[in-house]
């Protein structure tokens, strides 16, 4: 083979290889460019929609709501006035009652023709009258119990809402990691195509190409792991939402929430005082202590007997007084037992509820201190990332990639820049999600709900149920997010 033919054969092989590499890159870029179509079935879910679905479907909240309704029913029972009792007695029952009775109401009979006057009848109406304000104390106690149940319900909302948010933002973090892994795969696809051409032209060694291919395989493995993490996060959120339709197709909106003012700029003491005045769990414990005081006072008044008034009318044809009315009064005499057990039990319950309120107050203080410290720390970390590290890591990666393409940097420098960029972005996503969680944890410790419109819906169960289909329909029809 002549030198000219050899050069032509080499150039033809090079052109063929170049064409194959270009077609490969074009095919990969086309797949990535139209990848949203592969996920057309995904359902975009906002934070608000996730919380609304939870309110509508979660059985624990429904149970808490039933407890509230039970307390309200008990309030009606406590306010009820005792019903009167009516009794009717008939006596002197025989074949010939009051035969020849010596009374003006009986006809006089003879020995051969005796006359009977009929049986006697006695109708009585009895009414219990509670003394010493016992009914009023029961009404006050049940009203306080209903208020405590309302506080418990709001506390359940406070806790469970953050559980939903943790799962939702866990899904968002998994999606961010998947997006980063996809970006790294895309970069290595382009670099590999370029390096194969450079290898044929002799610009790089085969060992350098193998290093880049190894990093490309690692990036693909990271993408597979990230996809698995997204599906696991979707499953976790679905379980918390009681697995609605299309649960495994939910994707979190690709945005971090706007952090409103919840008092995070206040002093530590001011935040503690705010939490002590707003926390529903502390309010519920204080209400139960107030209820225990009413129950203790009620137990002490039990030794004051209640009065039963009786009034009636008697018909006695065999008596001298044929028709007569009567009134009476009856009451128990607390001579042997004066309800010392009930008083002691109520006093113990009062001490226990007061102790529980004190422990809850200490817990509130501790929650605020820990949540505030976590918020300050995570907020500072994110600000440093956004102020310095993100731009620096991106610029370094881009400059090193450009230098490597032009042969001004080694493959190790290029790989190190890629790894550094990936590490910085992963740390940033983790820090950003940690700040969001810390923000909502601080709001929970203060007893504040940043999205007040969501809390308003929990006070209207009928409205929640009527909005259920509309909310789910909105979720199902939401457009898929851009990858």
Radius of gyration: 41 Å
The order of strands across the largest sheet is 2-3-5-6
Termini separation comes to 53 Å
Shape field: elongated
As a percent range, the share of strand residues is: 5-15%
Largest β-sheet summary:
4 strands, antiparallel
H/E element order:
HHEHHEEHHEHHEEHHHH
Number of separate strands: 6
Q: Please, what is the average pLDDT?
A: 84
The total number of structural domains is: 2
Overall helicity = 55-70%
Helix vs. strand class: alpha+beta
CATH topology of the largest domain: Outer membrane efflux proteins (OEP)
Low-confidence stretches: 2-40, 460-483
Query: If helices are DSSP runs of H or I spanning 4 or more residues, what is the number of helices?
Result: 12
- The named CATH superfamily of the largest domain: Outer membrane efflux proteins (OEP)
CATH class of the largest domain: Mainly Alpha
Task: Using the 3D structure, state the CATH architecture of the largest domain.
Answer: Up-down Bundle
Question: How are the secondary structure elements laid out?
Answer:
Layout lengths: L2 H31 L1 H4 L4 E3 L1 H11 L1 H20 L6 E7 L28 E10 L4 H68 L4 H35 L9 E3 L15 H11 L1 H22 L5 E9 L7 E8 L9 H66 L5 H36 L5 H7 L2 H17 L6
Parallel strand pairs: 1-4
Antiparallel strand pairs: 2-3, 3-5, 5-6
Structure characterization notes:
By secondary structure, this protein is α+β, with helices and mostly antiparallel strands. It has 12 helices and 6 strands. It has 2 domains: 376 residues, Up-down Bundle (Outer membrane efflux proteins (OEP)); 81 residues. Helix content is 68%, strand content 8%. Helix 3 crosses helix 12 and helix 7 packs across helix 9. The protein is elongated, with a radius of gyration of 41 Å. It starts with a helix and ends in a 6-residue tail after the last helix. The N terminus and C terminus are likely disordered.
